[in-house]
Write a structure and sequence with these properties.
This protein has helices at about 60-65, 90-95, 115-125, 130-145, 160-175, 190-210, 220-225, 245-250, 255-260, 265-270, 300-305, and strands spanning about 5, 15-25, 30-40, 45-50, 75-80, 80, 100, 180-185, 210-215, 230-235, 235-240, 310, 320. By secondary structure, it is an alpha/beta fold. A nine-stranded mixed sheet has the order 1-12-13-11-10-4-9-8-7, sandwiched between helices. Strands 3-2-5-6 form a four-stranded antiparallel sheet.
């Protein structure tokens, strides 16, 4: 028998935690609830991936964890402290510990600034360092991400996409954060460069014991990096659990459909892909009952009238579905390639 998920924070084990977090925006036609009552936690040294289609609310949630998007309701905890409504000074201190790497390395760095200034910017804002000390620290950070300190005087516009993302990571690491939020960190890069950045992120985590919140639609990337996975649909969590368990045995039909969409190596798997009808409905006019039911291949009448709550199954998985585990994708991830 399943049990409702408690929304109370387990502050003794969580480094960063969202509790009943909701984010609502005013739009001309009414209110848009981009994040709806989301709870999850990140422990020290682990990677929690937030996955879902475009418009699922995952980036809005990530920005809220940085306090860039203030939550409309709910709470954010960091190191046992409620950081939901911090003063400007306290927020500045908080952001030293929680940093972010954005999706597009071409727009996240000022092309007019030298690398020394880009990386030194957070150091100047938070520490009193001389010019020589700033340059020395920037050089060390550049070398930590696999680039030479000799490149400090070049402008960001002179680098490739992969190099720019390394510079963005170096800047995020400048204040020695405990949590790094990475929003689609490799999606704008070519495949070979993606692999290099993934290896870099893995090495940094091993060396620094840093925690990652990984926002991504790439489930192969998630499989190789994540400890746990939070699956979002239309602003709500529909499934959450240990990465290997979610990938090998998804319990929510939406998770199964996402896994089914991963490119397959053989023609048979491609033919058995789970195809969802239509696009996600508007968060301004949500369907009654389960938000996923208009696209769900296994929806029943109950799904059209009742909203499933996030429940803990006997296997420890958290799922918001009346019929968990009925739909399974026809794809296998090779465990031999997972580091």
């Amino acid at each position: 028998m399943s049990n409702p998920i408690s929304s109370q924070p387990d502050l003794n084990s969580a480094l960063l935690k969202a509790v009943d977090l909701s984010i609502t925006f005013r739009v001309p036609t009414g209110s848009l609830k981009a994040v709806d009552n989301v709870s999850f936690q990140v422990k020290a040294g682990e990677t929690v991936a937030i996955v879902g289609e475009s418009g699922s609310g995952k980036t809005t949630l990530a920005l809220s964890l940085m306090r860039t998007n203030p939550p409309s309701s709910g709470s954010i905890y960091f190191e046992n402290q409620d950081v939901t409504n911090l003063s400007e000074k306290a927020l500045k201190d908080f952001r030293k510990k929680v940093q972010m790497v954005f999706q597009d390395p071409y727009s996240s760095l000022d092309p007019r600034m030298t690398v020394a200034k880009v990386i030194g910017e957070p150091l100047r804002a938070h520490h009193k360092l001389s010019k020589s000390e700033l340059r020395e620290q920037a050089g060390k950070l550049l070398e930590a991400v696999g680039l030479s300190a000799d490149l400090l005087d070049r402008r960001a516009s002179q680098f490739s996409g992969g190099q720019r993302q390394r510079i963005a990571i170096a800047r995020a690491l400048a204040l020695n954060p405990q949590v790094l939020i990475a929003d689609e960190p490799v999606s704008a890069l070519d495949v070979s460069t993606q692999a290099q950045i993934v290896n870099l992120l893995q090495r940094i985590q091993e060396e620094r014991n840093i925690s990652y919140v990984l926002v991504s639609h790439d489930l192969r990337l998630v499989y190789h990096l994540a400890t746990r996975v939070v699956v979002m649909y239309l602003g709500r969590v529909v499934e959450e659990g240990v990465c290997d368990d979610v990938v090998s045995n998804p319990q929510h039909p939406y998770t199964a459909a996402l896994l089914s969409a991963v490119p397959a190596l053989d023609e048979a798997s491609r033919k058995e892909r789970i195809v969802l009808n239509g696009a996600p409905p508007s968060p301004i006019a949500r369907p009654t009952g389960c938000s996923f039911h208009p696209r769900c291949p296994i929806a029943r009448e109950q799904c059209k009238t009742q909203t499933p709550e996030l429940q803990q199954l006997p296997n420890g998985r958290n799922v918001a579905c009346f019929f968990p585990g009925e739909l399974q994708p026809h794809i296998e991830f090779s465990t031999s390639t997972k580091e």
